UniProtKB/TrEMBL annotation:
One protein family per Pfam: ArdA
Superkingdom in the source lineage: Bacteria
InterPro entries: ArdA (IPR009899), ArdA_dom3 (IPR041893)
Protein name, per record: Antirestriction protein ArdA
Provenance organism: Candidatus Dechloromonas phosphorivorans
Length: 90
């Protein structure tokens, strides 16, 4: 819960009361945006791409696009890196 409140107040500027009301709306991945993008790709898209073509998919660019478009928001809390994976939804 600490990392969720940190993200909502520190990264998005919510007041504490508003952040507490939004906690259930936040989806956090424990890791950086590239790791989150890789998991998203594996879970949602990899099955649709033939094995011999998966090598050509650029996870780093995919993660970058997700961040630039506001879908992902990578942040630090303590010494750990987290990624909000539904940043556009909150």
């Amino acid at each position: 819960m600490k990392k969720l409140l940190f993200f909502l107040t520190g990264e998005l500027g919510y007041l504490l009361d508003d952040a507490i009301n939004k906690i259930d709306d936040v989806s956090i991945f424990h890791g950086d945006a590239q790791e989150a993008a890789e998991e998203l790709f594996d879970d949602c898209y990899a099955h649709a791409i033939p094995d011999n073509l998966r090598f050509y998919f650029d996870i780093e660019k995919f993660a970058h696009d997700l961040e630039v478009n506001g879908d992902f928001n990578e942040f630090q809390c303590g010494k750990r890196t987290f990624t909000c994976t539904n940043a556009n939804g909150i």
